[in-house]
Amino acid sequence: MTKYHPVFCSLLFFILIHGALPSEPQHWWPPHGAVKVKCPYKKVNLSWFTGTVNPCPGLYQPICGTNFVTYENPCILCVESMKSHGKIRFQNDGKC
Length: 96
What we know:
The protein is of the alpha+beta class. It has 2 helices and 3 strands, in the order αββαβ.
């Protein structure tokens, strides 16, 4: 039993942590489309970044944000969402 004790404790810790912590549903933007982005807008703060960026160059997949701005692709919307602390999010596929 002694050699199984660390494994048992690890398993018990894993069950307690995942059972006690509220799990956040994972959302992929957009739900349909060629490229989908899992945007960590609640965990990453890019409010200090004032520049423009295109993390998916050459990809045109219009996507509408909750601020009713059409973004060129989901990657750009994700960056804007992180810059706004999650205030700007996915509204719908296509142009606004």
